[in-house]
Design goal:
By secondary structure, this protein is α/β, with parallel strands linked by helices. It has 16 helices and 17 strands. The protein is about 35% helix and about 15% strand. The protein starts with 6 loop residues before the first helix and ends in a 22-residue tail after the last helix.
Length: about 525
């Protein structure tokens, strides 16, 4: 299979095209012009930084930095304010690039006000040293460099702060805002975020950049998730650890890899990155050094790992299945063959009904309906016409009740054994489908599945899934419904059935196109 074009390669192509158009005199919005001039400034070698080897060198944009810059340029080219939420691993160079960008704007344009907030005083000072170093080596104008502020000719200034102060930013009107390591902020997190971001006008020549490693489903991760909404002004970016050329160690060329590492190789391939034996050796070294949870938070391969880093997850990497839209026309899907689903009936817990479509070898989850202590008539409203639902084998009565209410769908017992030692194969089948890229979940209905997948772990004593109640998501009803769906599709002979089509319900997805 051919290697996909990497995000970094596409980002560099976009930057070069926009730069070429600009050189040819083609008109562009003011913010795009500023970003292109910043790119040229970096290319000229005038932005001086401290390297990982503790030497002073010109800033040469790496792959991560190019993707950030290209994304900002894309927003600016559309006449939109630059708004980014960046979930990252440790030390990819995002803070360095943002500091350089804000320094450049303040040095070359009048009346700019840039603010940077970090999670603690030491980190604030460390990040601001990046801009101070550039100021020391900037030859064109006199700069006033203080402990927490750089003043420029033309009335511009760049100020650093430690997050946590009450009502920060409420009295000023900055146009440049860098929120660093938001997940690590300790005090007045929501108040600080609200006051600082609301102080920035929604104007095309403004910039707000959130960037952080993740610490669970906190404020920052909520912002990252919300940025996936097409109506959001923010663009989400995630950077896995293997995108950096420094994340490698000496290794044998024929190193053997386990299932987890095989998934990593495939995931990286899908992002246009080739995982080498050196990457594998570096990852194993860091895992041994930091431990599972810390490593996966600090150096995640997916956003899911950044939120929940334990290796003992029963259904890992589910977030890699998330898609924004489906590649088919729903109305053309054949009844009872390509229209499928899974149901976990609840009595004291929730009933979850998953509706999906088989398209080629891939299962697309298009709807997840949750009912708390509900009647069969309520549950029937979530059933979609022409779908074959695979259900909890033990819930015969509930299945029969739905058959009476919805003769335009079919309900079968999923081919799963009740004993934990037997049902483990059913979880393996779900993981195999994720690994193969054959399970996709539309983002709009993925929330419950993701929350459960981050909490369901193997019990260290028994070796079986620990399916007690979770504070984060209650019981694991959605994952069970997904398991019934996957195993039903994989384990049953699915052929078209002649089932009566009944009208009279307000069906949730009948009119999908």
């Amino acid at each position: 299979m051919a290697q996909m074009e990497s995000k970094a390669f596409r980002a560099r192509k976009l930057i070069h095209k926009l730069n070429s158009d600009f050189q040819e005199g083609k008109p562009c919005p003011p913010m795009l012009e500023r970003l292109l001039l910043f790119y040229r400034w970096c290319e000229s070698g005038l932005a001086i930084i401290r390297s990982r080897e503790a030497t002073l060198i010109p800033l040469c944009l790496n792959d991560v930095q190019c993707i950030v810059l290209a994304t900002a340029m894309s927003q600016a080219a559309r006449g939109q304010p630059v708004r980014l939420v960046i979930l990252k691993h440790r030390k990819p160079g995002v803070s360095t690039m943002v500091q350089a960008l804000f320094f450049f704007f303040c040095a070359h344009y009048g009346n700019q006000i840039g603010n940077m907030l970090a999670h603690q005083a030491a980190s604030t000072s460390e990040i601001f040293q990046i801009s101070k170093l550039m100021a020391e080596h900037y030859p064109y104008t006199a700069l006033g460099v203080g402990q927490n502020q750089i003043s420029f000719d033309g009335g511009s200034r760049f100020i650093c702060h430690t997050a946590g102060g009450e009502s920060f930013g409420a009295g000023g009107t900055p146009n440049l805002l860098h929120l660093s390591e938001v997940a690590l902020w300790k005090q007045n997190k929501h108040e600080t975020e609200y006051a600082s971001t609301q102080a920035v006008p929604f104007d095309p020549c403004t910039v707000i950049i959130y960037e952080s490693t993740a610490r669970g489903r906190d404020l920052f991760y909520e912002r990252f998730e919300a940025a996936h909404d097409p109506s959001s002004a923010y663009e989400p970016l995630f950077f896995p650890w293997y995108m950096n050329d420094w994340a490698t160690s000496p290794a044998d060329a024929d190193v053997s890899i386990n299932d987890e590492e095989q998934w990593l190789v495939q995931s990286a391939h899908d992002n246009g990155v080739r995982i080498t034996p050196g990457h594998i050796a570096w990852r194993r070294m860091k895992l041994a050094e930091l431990g599972e949870i810390t490593f996966r938070q600090e150096y995640p391969s997916t956003a899911e790992e950044a939120v929940r880093g334990t290796r003992s997850l029963v259904v890992p990497h589910l977030d890699s299945c998330i898609i924004e839209d489906v590649p088919y026309v729903y109305a053309g899907m054949e009844y009872f063959t390509n229209r499928v689903g899974g149901i976990d009936f609840g009595y004291n817990d929730d009933t979850v009904i998953i509706s999906a479509v088989r398209f080629g070898q891939v299962i697309f989850v298009i709807d997840v309906a949750v009912f708390a202590q509900s009647l069969s008539t309520d549950q029937a409203s979530a059933i979609m016409v022409g779908h074959r639902y695979f259900c909890d084998p033990s819930a015969l009565a509930a299945r029969k009740e739905l058959e009476k209410l919805r003769p335009d769908a079919t309900f079968m017992a999923a081919p799963i054994m009740a004993k934990p030692q037997d049902s483990e194969a059913s979880w393996q089948r779900v993981r195999a489908m994720i690994l193969a890229g054959n399970l996709k979940i539309v983002r709009s209905c993925a929330g419950r599945l993701l929350r459960e997948s981050e909490s369901l772990i193997y019990n260290e004593r028994t070796g079986f899934p620990d399916k007690g109640r979770s504070e984060a998501c209650g019981h694991y009803d959605a994952l069970d419904a997904l398991r019934y769906l996957v195993n039903g599709v994989a384990g049953c002979d699915i052929r078209p059935l002649n089932v009566k089509h009944t009208r009279g319900f307000s069906l949730r997805k009948d009119l999908m196109i």
